[in-house]
Each structure stands twice: as C-alpha cells, then as structure tokens.
C-alpha cells in the first residue's frame, strides 16, 4: 500500500535505536525526508547511514528534547535542510523505581519533565505549522501502562506521569482535528529492543526462556516479545494519508496482553 506521504518531512525523536529507529526506517521507506533526533551521535550517524543505504533521505542531529532549547536546535536543522515537519514521532524514555507510598518528589518531577513536558514542548513547537498547512501527523510512542498502571513492578512514578501525557495528547487531538492534524499514541507492550535484550541477559535467559516467562509469568498471549519493526510499521500507518480520520486514538500493540475491551 502506498501511504501517500512521499516528500513529507518527518521528525523522529529517539530515532537512532529500537522502536524509534524502526519508525524512521518505515517512514523513509514511504519516501519521507527523515530527521533523526537523539542524544548519541554515533547511533544517530548509524541510523542515518542505514536509511541512506536503502535509498532514503535522512539527516540527524543530537539534541536534548526535554528542553525547548533542544527542540528549537533540532527544528533549526530541520528547516535548514527542508521545512518544518509534517510528521512528528514523539518518544522519550525514563525510569525510576519505587512504590507509590514512598515516591521521591524529585523523581516525579524528573519523570514529568522527561516524559510529559517533552511531548508538550514538542507539540507546541511543531503542531501550529501543521495547522497552517492543513495537514499533519503527531504520533507518540508511549506505553501500555498509561492505561493500565503496572502493578507487577515498582513503577509508581511512571504510572503517574504517563497518563498525564495521554491526557495532554487527547486534549490536543480535539483542538487540531478540524485543521487536518491527527494526534495518536502507540502503546507498545513488551517489545524486543536493546533495553529488553539487556533485561533478559541480566537474568541469563535464552530467547526460549524469555518467551516462556512472557507467556507464563507476564501473560502475553502471543508468547513472544514484539518486534521493534512492528511498532515502526504501526507508526507509519498512523502517519499515512489513509489514516486521516484516526485521531485521539490510543493504539495498543502488545501481543494481546491488554485484557480490557475499551
């Protein structure tokens, strides 16, 4: 299927590794001009080279997207090569372990700054240009715990911040739908990324043992972790022209591990 987004400018946060990288690759394969924004220059360069080796168009920049200054730096690079983004893929990662009863306020503030406010700042900096063009896509790669807080692990701080991000994005979707701009969240479950690989190796598990743990202990019906490229493909579809009537949606990609029907 032709997603009809060839020539669009795509800004991919966290696009150097894992799910963000696969989203960047998928968008580049559809003909988008992709700006990969992350922190580590070596990984950025590798992702850009990968896209170019496949005939795609890409640039990269190292920037801290938890600040307005870092976002503006990245957007300056984007404009210098092409234009303001038509497509934005938002993603940030931060973890603090702890129980709700003894959460550290500083960790809560850090989580809001890193996870919630980075999405707020990025949307505020990019969505108005989409509104002016009467076309735009803002896709946030979030987490299933924004809807069902994780109770099996001490992730209370994340359980507080992630729903706030979802609330902001849902509200934004109401405000900009009339301008042809869609705002959606992809909520991955257990996805095989470098972080998950590290988690499995810490436990000394083979892939067969890891799959058994996911199925029997975590309860993933698919019996395996998801693939980062499955997230990338989902993001690319939500950015497509055909997905123009999908907005305000929270799309779970977790191998059936989310048991609610709503």
TrEMBL record:
InterPro entries: NAD(P)-bd_dom_sf, SDR, SDR_fam. SUPFAM superfamilies: NAD(P)-binding Rossmann-fold domains. Signal peptide: none annotated. PANTHER family: 3-OXOACYL-(ACYL-CARRIER-PROTEIN) REDUCTASE, NADPH-DEPENDENT REDUCTASE BACG. Belongs to the short-chain dehydrogenases/reductases (SDR) family. This is Short-chain dehydrogenase. It comes from Sphingobium baderi LL03.
């Amino acid at each position: 299927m032709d997603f009809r987004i060839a020539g669009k400018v795509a800004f991919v946060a966290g696009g150097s590794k894992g799910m963000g990288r696969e989203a960047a690759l998928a968008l580049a394969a559809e003909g988008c001009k992709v700006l990969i924004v992350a922190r580590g220059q070596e990984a950025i360069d590798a992702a850009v080279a990968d896209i170019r080796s496949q005939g795609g168009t890409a640039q990269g920049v190292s920037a801290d997207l938890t600040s307005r200054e870092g976002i503006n730096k990245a957007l300056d690079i984007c404009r210098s090569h092409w234009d303001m983004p038509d497509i934005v893929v938002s993603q940030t990662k931060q973890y603090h372990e702890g129980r709700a009863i003894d959460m550290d306020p500083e960790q809560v503030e850090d989580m809001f700054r890193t996870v919630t406010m980075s999405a707020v700042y990025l949307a505020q900096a990019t969505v108005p240009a989409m509104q002016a063009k009467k076309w735009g896509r803002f896709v946030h790669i979030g987490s299933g715990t924004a809807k069902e807080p994780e109770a099996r692990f001490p992730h209370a701080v994340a359980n507080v911040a992630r729903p706030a991000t979802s609330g902001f994005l849902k509200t934004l979707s109401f405000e900009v739908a009339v301008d042809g701009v869609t705002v959606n969240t992809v909520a991955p479950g257990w996805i095989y990324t470098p972080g998950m690989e590290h988690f499995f190796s810490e436990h000394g598990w083979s892939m067969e043992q890891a799959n058994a743990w996911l199925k029997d202990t975590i309860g993933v019906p698919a019996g395996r972790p998801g693939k980062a490229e499955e997230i990338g493909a989902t993001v690319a579809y939500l950015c497509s022209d055909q997905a123009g009537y999908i907005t305000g949606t929270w799309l779970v990609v977790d191998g059936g591990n989310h048991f609610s029907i709503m």
